[in-house]
Amino acid sequence: MPGMHPHGGPPGGPWGPGGRPPLPPIPPQGFPFGGPPGHLPPRSRSQPPPPGPDDFDSPPTSPVEGNPTAITGPTVISAQMKCKVFLKQQHAQWKSLGAAKLKLFKQDVPVLVKQLVVEADTKNKDLLISTIVLTDGVERVGRTGVAIELSDKGVRTGIVYMLQLRNEAAATGLFNDLLAGSDRTGGRH
Predict the structure, then answer these.
(1) Residue 55: exposed, middle, or buried by beta-carbon count in 10 A (0-12, 13-18, 19+)?
(2) Tell me: the pLDDT tens digits for 73-131?
(3) Helix (H, G, I), strand (E, B), or coil: what is residue 90?
(4) I need a surface site. Which of 62, 88, 129, 151 has the fewest CB within 10 A?
């Protein structure tokens, strides 16, 4: 019979043409106002203030221990050198982005945080990379390369750049600086 499922009933069963039950709406994850912490929707002066922490039944979210997401205090430049920058496109395929100058900023207090900043070695000094270094996102590539995966708010993004240095000693030095103070030791991996 046209318009009927071979085993009887409407096509897709009781849920209609898709054949699956509808998905329930997804509630916001831990954000009572629908945005990240510190983000509140704009309100007019006539609206009452948003509910306070005592107005909710659930406890506040626990702080997440782990990777710091920003430099918040005084820094020192722990490495500064020229390099060539490559963007990883596929496995073992790299797109050249040209010559650049890198600086590795380090903050020791209150926690150890490192930020890698790479600018194009051009008149405009375009910013190519600015990322907080996550030690599990750093690897050696050959004799003169160091790969670094970008992070966003303490989470690896999957975007990988390779910095090619002048020689093996420079690559080893940068690699060791990137990992210094972590549970990973420098050297070849």
Answers:
(1) exposed
(2) 788 999 999 999 999 998 889 999 999 999 999 998 788 899 999 999 999 999 999 99
(3) strand
(4) 62
Task: Return d(Cα 175, Cα 86) in angstroms, integer.
Answer: 16
The sheet with strand 155-164 has its strands ordered as 127-132, 113-120, 93-107, 76-90, 155-164, 145-152, 138-141
Q: How far is Cα 81 from Cα 150, in angstroms, rounded to an integer?
A: 19
What is the C-alpha to C-alpha distance for residues 23 and 27, in angstroms, rounded to an integer? 12
In three-state form (DSSP H/G/I as H, E/B as E, the rest C), the secondary structure along 115-172 is EEEEEECCCCCCEEEEEECCHHHEEEECCCEEEEEEEECCEEEEEEEEEECCCHHHHH
Tokens of 162: 């390779």
Q: What is the DSSP letter of 183?
A: S
pTM: 0.61
Residue type, 32: P
CA–CA separation, 109 and 103 (whole Å): 19
